[in-house]
Fold:
Amino acid sequence: MKLIKKISITGKLTLKTGLHIGGSNSSLNIGGPDKFVVRNPINNMPYIPGSSLKGKMRTLIELRDESYDRKKGDPSNDPTSYAGALFGTAGDKNDGHSSRLIVRDAPMNTSNKEQFEHTDMPFTESKTEVSINRITGTAKNGGLRTLERVPAGAIFDVNMVLNIYDNENEEILLETLKAAMALLEDDYLGGNGSRGYGQVEFSDMKFESKPTDSYA
Structure:
């Protein structure tokens, strides 16, 4: 099996609604949010972990193709499935299939910092929610909580790499990736999606093919 090319995939991911991907609560302050978003500890900027983006896209392809082991509740390890072919499978050296897709952490694009001038915290907002008792229709005791979210309109820079080997179908791998991105746009990223969080949109996506001999 020979690596014949890499396809560099770059673009933008825009938040259509607020996004919460949880980070450390070690800096919890009295009166602050109960749950924080993940931030880069060097510059304090929110970012989208590559693992969160990749994991959600894989899950959506597996759900589309019913490639879950329903008894174990685990993803199928069939390397011939669309999810297995693109995202890889678990296993030993004989039957394992490494992921063909690399998904980088997506940093926040700050080319328009003015849009964050009025946020509650640096580049984020706080959203207070109340848990309602479905029987009485009243708020539960202790049901008040505040979450930190990256607000709608924020943009993140997407960077992925697709490895193509000589015995694989490039067209199918690309179609699977594009389907995963389209499914994500009509689903959600991060937590609390059923409450309206995490609607995203990809834009300005560029696919650049780089044959391996070009790296010489």
